[in-house]
Amino acid sequence: MNETLVTVVGNVATPPDFRETAGGASVSRFRLAATVRRWDRAREEWTDAYTSFYTVWAWRALAGNVVGSLSVGEPVVVHGKLKIQEQERDGKRWLSADIDAVSVGHDLARGTSAFRRVSQARPLPLEPVRMAGMPVTAGEVIAAGGVVDEARVAGVSP
User: Which UniProt keywords apply (predicted)?
Assistant: First the structure.
């Protein structure tokens, strides 16, 4: 595998969007602006040189965390796989630089952040609980002369 991994420090330039693919995978994207700063000896101060823009793609759990954590203007560090794509639109050829993010976080050299762990609750396998001869399955309810409320069984609120 000859993938180019990059770490880019910059600012969130667009609000992260969120959607699901046809296959059900969560994906988020945002634009990242990374401005090179240089020391100007003549002025004895830092000056901005040029700004590079990247489209950052976050998948699965990272997608939801990006949308819930990032806002425009916030300083971030993005690590992921760089993909340069050549495209043509309206007769003009152009390049785009995309990053498939592996990790995204706030740049703590420029501010503070509070971490909140996302619970990854897994559904527990549930076994029917039989209480004092009460029916457990729909078939047992019907056999006992009861009526099955299909909406309640399906989890739909009345």
Answer: DNA-binding
CA angle 49, 54, 59 (to 5 degrees): 150
SS (H, E, C) 13-60: CCCCEEEECCCCCEEEEEEEEEEEEEEECCCCEEEEEEEEEEEEEEEC
**pTM for the model:** 0.71
Cα distance between residue 1 and residue 82, in whole Å: 13
- Residue-wise pLDDT for 29-70, tens only, equals 999 999 999 999 999 999 999 999 999 999 999 999 999 999
Beta bridge partners of 101: 80
Domains (ranges, CATH) in the chain? 5-106 (2.40.50.140)
